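Input.
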Amino acid sequence: MPARRLFALAHLEGRAVGCGALLPFADDTGEIKRMYAEPGSTGVGAALLAFLEDGARAMGLRRLVLETRWANDRAVGFYRRHGYHLTDNYGPYAGRPWSACFAKPLQQAPAGAIR
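Output.
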């Protein structure tokens, strides 16, 4: 599997307000890691997630997975609103009842499409 990584930082007036990363997970799957958007930074989380998803498509990935904690209601709701569905806990999260794992199949953008 080629080493495919993508890191994103959102800043506003010289101050970091969000971040996220896309790391390799399996041949056709990437893992979203360290997603964060400062509370009150409307639209930052959605923009970061869209950027990472577009990057995943450009890398030829067909699926994304991620983990958050059930206690983080804000994150659980955010991922559900953006098309992620609950999946079995994987890898280091298996057997951890506080972990909530999500997955999303990626639709490939039509050739020449600009987002």
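The helical segments are 44-58, 73-81.
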